[in-house]
Amino acid sequence: MSRGCTCRPGLPIAPARPIPEGAATQQESAGLTQSVVPILLSGGSGTRLWPVSRRSFPKQFAALTGDHSLFQASALRLSGPRYGAPLVLTGADFRFIVTEQLAGVGIVPGAVLIEPAPRNTAPAVLAAALHLAAADPDVMMLVAPSDHVVPDAEAFGRAVDRGIAPARAGRIVTFGIHPTRPETGYGWLELGGESGAAPDDPAPLRRFVEKPDAAAAEAMLADGRFLWNAGIFLFTARTMIEAFERHAPDFIAPVRASLQAARPDLGFLRLDPEAWDSLPDLSIDYAVMEKAGNLSVVRFADHWSDLGGWDAIWREAQLDAPAWRGVVADARSTAIDCDDVLLRSDDENLQVVGIGLRDTMVVATGDAVLVADMNRAQDVRQAVTALKARGIRQAERFLRDHRPWGWFETLVMGERFQVKRITVHPGAALSLQSHVHRSEHWIVVSGTARVTVDGKVTLVTENQSIYVPLGAVHRMENPGKVPMVLIEVQTGVYLGEDDIVRYEDVYARS
Amino acid sequence: MSRGCTCRPGLPIAPARPIPEGAATQQESAGLTQSVVPILLSGGSGTRLWPVSRRSFPKQFAALTGDHSLFQASALRLSGPRYGAPLVLTGADFRFIVTEQLAGVGIVPGAVLIEPAPRNTAPAVLAAALHLAAADPDVMMLVAPSDHVVPDAEAFGRAVDRGIAPARAGRIVTFGIHPTRPETGYGWLELGGESGAAPDDPAPLRRFVEKPDAAAAEAMLADGRFLWNAGIFLFTARTMIEAFERHAPDFIAPVRASLQAARPDLGFLRLDPEAWDSLPDLSIDYAVMEKAGNLSVVRFADHWSDLGGWDAIWREAQLDAPAWRGVVADARSTAIDCDDVLLRSDDENLQVVGIGLRDTMVVATGDAVLVADMNRAQDVRQAVTALKARGIRQAERFLRDHRPWGWFETLVMGERFQVKRITVHPGAALSLQSHVHRSEHWIVVSGTARVTVDGKVTLVTENQSIYVPLGAVHRMENPGKVPMVLIEVQTGVYLGEDDIVRYEDVYARS
């Protein structure tokens, strides 16, 4: 029996501080021309890492391989003297997760642009370029997906440095990873130019290669002129806008219109939905990169992974800590006579046991268990589609529901009652609301709540309770400096989230 | 993708009614000599069916394959005109589960004998024989494990009828199952006597065969003189006592002493632990059957299974409803491109997904997931041993804790707080108690509670709450006719179950 503790529980978020309003704008205007502005794209849904990654809380925000989420790790990797404050593009559902997670690692974003709807990477990159070009068209931008693993940030930084000169000269610089196996799950890059050039020199790109079959991958690995396409790009705002003008001109007007009508909201910049919605769903690779003739490749020989599936997580874990018989099992998992397995429990109350398994991944959360052949990692998205088609909540949502003010989760749903745990951030407030069908008992178990019921304000502290009768207009706030946790017991004939009448809401949801 | 709904959720218990005190004794004395008294042995722990079966709530009490638990199904199968009221032998931990489950199917036991400690089947069978012989030494006893599946109860009853005459004549009758496959997981019986005898005639037993290897099993299946040993025996009390006197005389005195000093308790008969504890842990097969020369075999050609592991559950499910590609999946499980798999979720909030699996069993409960090669079903007990060695609760206990008055389960355990759901049977009461380290908030969500706090009695009904301060002497009762459900929120620095001072307890636990 082997037990390594190489994977970590999911979903923890480093302690959050709300970012002060206005901070973003100050930072944004400070000396961006001197440094590279990271563009963090974090709108993806990551269904291949279900059940830990779901549409409501995708993989980039989960702590899949370490203490930080992939998004936090990306932001940290692209911070320091080399970089300016990052520009983040995300969806409305994730805006508070983004700010919480950045605050958790002490990073203040230059701006957080909210995409009204997911439209893949082309509109997002153009929006970032147009937004930054307004202040400085020659600003250097580094577009990076926020779900990559690059353990050596300094080595990556030196690769970025090597890309600066060609980017300033109007090239679009892409980063090519030195391949270590005949990977069929990635796109590849074929280098042009002289074969005798120094490996650190940027090389012209001959062509993008789509995900190959096994034979083609073997051939490219042996050839030496092929690298993995990491999907990381360095360029000036001017270069990218010109590339769109030449190769995808139809994007310019709607993205510009959406930016011009953008609405500031609690430190976020909400792109206007009207023009945005008309944009096609297209990746930057298809829209621009594959058509542009001015691409250069900077080689990156250090470790990189895109965590595209549970097989990648399993492989990464073994790089961190070699696993006996290929068993990667966390502290809540037990492997008996298993070979080449990933056993993972993301719920502290859930034990996982594997007996006699080969090439198998088991990933368990509190509400879903995935068991798959290791070679079928890419088919996990099929499972998500199947569950979604049957209307099963677990396909896209967690029990824990993140809100601007904190989060809640249902502990038990009974006939005519429901018990929730609610956590409210310091200083945060729920909307002033009432319910038609339910009454609520609140018991504070940590911190202090300021509770308003039909105009009467009460401070409710640990081990105190308060009753909110059916129909009463009420609000819950956390006036303190520590998170407030309360247990809510609802009773009533209908307990859906949509039985809510909002009177006032600081988060503009009423 | 295939979805059959052939397995059922675990642990539901048919609605319970407490048995009236004294009912057992009345029934016991009524006409036992006319019929066969079923002896239901239900003390086993069933670790091979972990995680659904655990020491605290073993497989015989779980609804593994139908609406009833195996114990309920056994009791029902051995009820009707042919049989007397059953005599149940069980452990102290299971006594209330036994009475609840019998009440749930409308069966009043002749007696429930509580074994002070598990000592395997030999002492249990002797205790039953001595207990019944006191009223009538010629009483006909049918010993049956309570974890068998025998769909045709009437066919089995006719087999019992065929055993009556030899049993009256002083034979020990065992039941041999017509084998349908070369099973290596069962013991076998070799028949003696003339090969030309009618198949319905009881035949003398030549010998017991231990669990064979595959080749021996194949040979026995082909031979025709071999049957599976079901471990079901029919005999008179007198015959069994004489067999013990001859083959295992050391058992007699301690079992008799334990019976004589037995203490009636709420309708149960608690065997005295002093003599009992000195008994060896031995099966009736080893102690008596394999030595006795007076065994006859009654053939049973209908379907029978002992549900000895998850592979048996998988096999049984396909007999009920043929499964496409061998996929047995319940309503909460999804199989994508799987062959010969069992996918089972016993928690209504837990979805199970299998992708590309072959010969694999996945069994998930709310706090444990088993994934094993189908051919390793017997090694599940190894997993339980491994978890137990690491002190992991799931090895032996469920989150749901059964008590004489009902059950409770922890919904969430936080720092300095805990939330429980508590269900109290109609008419039941918790002990009068106090806690040194915690206070409790109770919110009734179903039914009505009578709550005593420091001498003050309050009726608390649905959607009402009450507070029990730290140190207060309190009691909770359900004075109503329907189960009472409440949510308890505990706060305090120490929340262990052992922080309890009991002042009065109807269940004699103070």
Explain this structure to me?
2 copies of one chain form a homodimer. Chain A is globular and about 75 Å long. Chain A folds into 3 domains: 23-300, Spore Coat Polysaccharide Biosynthesis Protein SpsA, Chain A; 327-393, no CATH class; 400-504, Jelly Rolls. The longest helix of chain A is centred in the N-terminal third of the chain and has 16 residues, at 153-168. The first copy, chain A, is α/β, with parallel strands linked by helices and 510 residues long. The first copy, chain A, has helices spanning 23-28, 70-77, 95-104, 121-133, 153-168, 214-223, 237-247, 252-260, 273-276, 284-289, 310-320, 380-389; strands at 36-41, 87-91, 111-115, 140-145, 172-177, 188-191, 203-209, 226-236, 263-265, 268-270, 295-300, 327-329, 333-336, 339-345, 351-355, 358-364, 368-373, 400-403, 406-414, 417-424, 432-434, 438-446, 448-453, 456-461, 464-468, 474-477, 484-492, 501-504. In chain A, helix 4 packs across helix 7 and helix 4 crosses helix 8. In chain A, helix 2 links the parallel strand 1 (36-41) and strand 2. Chains A and B meet through strand 15, strand 16, strand 17, helix 12 and strand 19 of A and strand 15, strand 16, strand 17, helix 12 and strand 19 of B.
In CATH terms, the superfamily of the largest domain in chain A is Spore Coat Polysaccharide Biosynthesis Protein SpsA, Chain A
Give the helix level of chain A as a range of percent. 10-25%
Structural class of chain A: alpha/beta
Low-confidence runs of chain A: 1-33
**Which CATH architecture of the largest domain in chain A would you pick?**
Alpha-Beta Complex
Spatial order of the strands in the main sheet of chain A? 18-19-20-27-22-25
Outline of chain A: globular
N-C termini distance of chain A? 55 Å
Q: How many domains in all of chain A?
A: 3
Which two chains form the greatest contact, residue counts included? A-B, 59 and 58 residues
Q: Just give the CATH class of the largest domain in chain A.
A: Alpha Beta
What is the C-alpha radius of gyration of chain A, as a whole number of Å?
A: 24 Å
Q: What's the tally of helices of chain A?
A: 12
% residues in beta strands of chain A = 25-35%
Q: Could you report the average pLDDT of chain A, rounded to the nearest whole number?
A: 88
Q: What is the subunit arrangement here?
A: homodimer
CATH topology of the largest domain in chain A: Spore Coat Polysaccharide Biosynthesis Protein SpsA, Chain A
Question: Biggest β-sheet of chain A, characterized?
Answer: 6 strands, antiparallel
The total count of strands of chain A amounts to 28
